[in-house]
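Course assignment 3, question 2. Fill in each field.
Student: A.L.
Task: Predict the tertiary structure for the chain below.
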Amino acid sequence: MPSRKFGDIQVEFSNLDKVLYPDTGTTKQEVIDYYVAIAPAMIPHIAGRPVTRKRWPNGVESTPFFEKNLAEHAPDWIERHAIEHSSRAIHYPVFDSVAGLAWLGQQASLEIHVPQWRFDTEGDRGSATRLVFDLDPGDGVSLAECAQVAVAVRDMVGEIDLVAFPVTSGSKGIHVYVPLDRVLSPGGASKVARQVADNLEKMLPGLVTATMAKSARHGKVFLDWSQNNPAKTTIAPYSMRGRAQPTAAAPRTWAELENPENLRHLRFDEVLDRFTRFGDLLHDLDPTPEDKLAKYRSMRNAEKTPEPVPPASPKPSAGNAFVIHEHHARRLHWDVRLERDGVLVCWAVPKGVPESPKENRLAVHTEDHPIEYLDFAATIPKGQYGGGVMTIWDTGTYETEKWRDDEVIIRLQGQQVEGRFAFIQTGGKNWLMHRMKEESETASGADFPRGMSPMLATAGSVDGLSEEEWCFEAKWDGYRLIAEIDRGELKLRSRAGNVVTDRYPGLQELAGELAEHRVVLDGEVVVLGPNGVPDFGMLQVDGSAAQLLAFDLLYLDGTSLLRKKFTDRRRVLEALALKAPGLSVPPLLDGSGADALAESRDKGWEGVVAKRRDSVYLPGKRGHSWIKAKNWLTQEVVIGGWKRGQGGRRGRIGSLLLGIPDDDGQLQYVGKVGTGFSEKVLESLSDQLAPMRREDSPFATALPTAERKDAVWVEPKLVGEVRFGEWTGPGRLRHPAWRGLRDDKHPDEVRRES
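Answer field:
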């Protein structure tokens, strides 16, 4: 089997003479050669983005298939990130190397599709970096008319100081890309693109439609804005197309589109020739990220120093390690280095780390260092930059409270240093390093906190997490509560901050047991069924049977525990539970993250929450040191109406009509739910919905005829929650079951779960 080496990566090839485009005789070898040659132009536009492949292993005359998940047998050197979808986590590949594009060619992945966002430094879905408009010609419309609309898009976005880049798609129409110079809120990219499309539809009604319905596209250009949805992808610039002719998505000049008489789609060899002659016409669409180690390399000679000198720009990472070097250079100083975005951000502190809040130490900001410095210790030769003995003085991890260009606040957790520190810029490279007071150091003790918001977990996979670094808890199917117990007086607050003490009278016993203490607990209020599994439906109707499962302790008798490690907070919580039989502290789960998730499935729990052993508590924030993984999907919904039931439910509620507000606040229909109700729940819902009746539908989308029949419309004021199988193509809930009302949520807060 032939192979070829790209840098340090060996790529295996097979069937290189297979014809993939019969009309032109184009072989797999030619496809691979094209992707290798076009890589310098193409990589900046796909790097960091999840890649969906459309493959034709038997050529373009055969049936292709889309491939999102990266197979387990794929080479280990291919970067991959998991995204939670409706039924499972999909591991998407990310390609940023020539070897990666060559491998795609070997796979006969003729089409490469990517979204308009990149993964962030922690492997999560980041913000959109660009907009895309897909100009799709309807029947009777030519590429020249698409070009006319593309120019109109360019002119309209230019009015808000944005630039645009055109690409003939290689299939039917034209793509217009707009780089974003600002971070948009989730859904903001779609909102902006839709506004542009709607405006152009009004300006050019005879030429442009922004309507999804195919019946509206005849004789017009459909200005498709929907590909800015984070779940959608677009053919990548320079990608080949699986057409009869081997065309490719080709960057064009505006001069070509302003004079479109001879405008046509280009073959891959023509695209490569244009790149050779003109360079990447999309260079300013996705600028190459700054090489953070360029200055470091410029100051060092790898042949004369033992220091690590990486040859290329580092990849972003989400690590939180630190190291402090004792550096006997021309003058003794200590180098504080914090891992961030793939490098170590560094300060030289001449007098060392301050030992008390009364001291401020000069800290000189220096060039970023490579990650390899975390365990580097050596003698740098005299005459070289930083020459002298360098040893590791302390190492560990840190938590970030604030990170701005002129101020950084962190908590160091090392072997010699533990505490909160601030780096404050005073001018140029000069900063101050300041040790901050702990909350427990203020006056005679921390004030009793009231109205604290709970820390939230980030959705993700726990499969690769080890028990050495993480603790694992069951994710309970109930309501999140903060319990304030002040010398026998109990106050329960919901996640939204509402006082809900009266709903759970059985928890007053706990306040009595802890009457000698002042305590703030974080936990989940549940009603356990006969099998020991939480019953969310019972919790809705019988709060007297509820119990609090406490999994964190935030305050105890004048001491705030927020900045203590999770394992320390947990140890104190378990000791407190020995004094109060009514304080239920669920045990931690044994084994790795994969073991914990498997146990949760076996026992019918909602899922698992993983917490870093050294994580501090960040009230009201969603931290990446806590990760949640669910075994089923849930979605908050707004009730917009109900349908009359049949049979045993005749004359009463048969099913609820559900919606989710979009980014404009318009209620979009997502389906109906008719299961999961007890008789008591149906009676309660009938009583609450009766005074909310209205004459017209509150939904912005038209409901199917069968679901409008016998519908009773209501004001969209009540929020509920459903459990369901997956999202269908039209954006409907598949097999939903009612779980209960969520009176801790306002309709405006409801959004479709990612």
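Instructor remarks: DSSP finds 13 helices and 45 strands in the chain. Residues 440-444 have pLDDT under 50 and may be disordered.
Grade: pending
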